[in-house]
Amino acid sequence: MPNNTEREGLPVTDSLSPRRPGEPALAALGLSAPCTDDSDTSPHAFPEGGTWRTEIPSVEGPEALAVVLKEASRLDVPVHRISQGSGVWMLTDAEITEMVESAAERDIELCLFTGPRGTWDTGASVRTDSHGAGLRARGHDAVAGCVEDAVRATELGVKCLLVADEGVLWTLHRAREQGVIPGDTTLKVSALIGPVNPASYAVFERLGADSLNVPSDLTLAHLTEIRRVSAAPMDLYVEAPDDLGGYVRMYEIAELIRRGAPLYLKFGLAKAPAIYPYGAHLRDVTLDTARERVRRGRLALDLLARHGADGGMSPLGSRLPGTLDRFPLTVSH
């Protein structure tokens, strides 16, 4: 893999070298940061050579998308991907079509969630203290519902699907390989089932994942461990919603990129009400939080620039993950 100075079309800056907040001031006080190990730097990148892309999550319908696009233009926040959490089933065909067209005009990837999943089902185990099977699809009919959503969404032009179940992931991967859904559909693993170790990360990649949302409490060392076994793009909330921990990792953003590349920086929002599944009764809070997520993105990008680590962003319009490892579709006997 070429280093950043060799990546075609990108600025000649070493964005993968460590950048730490307050470093010059602390060094002047004799409090220099410990030396970093070059072997911790991820050797991977997106296929066009970039090391990071951006994602605005929880964009629940056409109106919220319009707010995000307007705010992104106002604050000059580059956006590679828009994702939605309520599910394909919560949108009409007309709403999906409007979102597809609006995203396409800006060359942004639109990602919609497949459903049903654990919390929106008849099963009670997910509501117990142990959380049972979590957000996974319960039974054949739930898997069928996810496939129904995938077929419907892709027929309307959606090119990225969110999944929260390993079996659904494998099923949709097989479906795109066999032409049931378009072959260039990308599959994104939800933070609701995000892998927390390199072995599970590699399994998700082989099941068909094109990007994987890892929990925001993974350490920098954990990211390095994952990068030693997999090049699959990683999604990570720089600021996580409260139901995913509420972690804010703004000051680690340069190191997150250095360790985790290729990385989608997700600009979530702590201390915000839950909005899934979205409806008109949640309109005001949904639009307000959509607007604030873009502002959080501006804050994060400004911080990267101050640290001299803002080089390496993928060109806008980039969406594919590159060549990844997969399990064989058929097993010989």
Structural class call reads: alpha/beta
Runs in which pLDDT lies below 50 for 5 or more consecutive residues are 1-16
Mean pLDDT across residues? 89
Topology as a string of helices (H) and strands (E)? HEHEHEHEHEHEHEHEH
Shape: globular
Strand residue percentage:
5-15%
The major beta sheet can be summarized as: 8 strands, parallel, barrel
Question: Order of strands in the sheet with the most strands?
Answer: 1-2-3-4-5-6-7-8
Count the DSSP helices. 9
Q: Please give the number of β-strands.
A: 8
Describe this structure in words.
The N terminus is likely disordered. It is globular and about 60 Å long. Strand 3, helix 4 and strand 4 form a beta-alpha-beta unit. It is 34% helix and 11% strand. It is an alpha/beta fold. The chain has an eight-stranded parallel barrel with strand order 1-2-3-4-5-6-7-8, surrounded by six helices. The chain contains nine helices and eight strands.
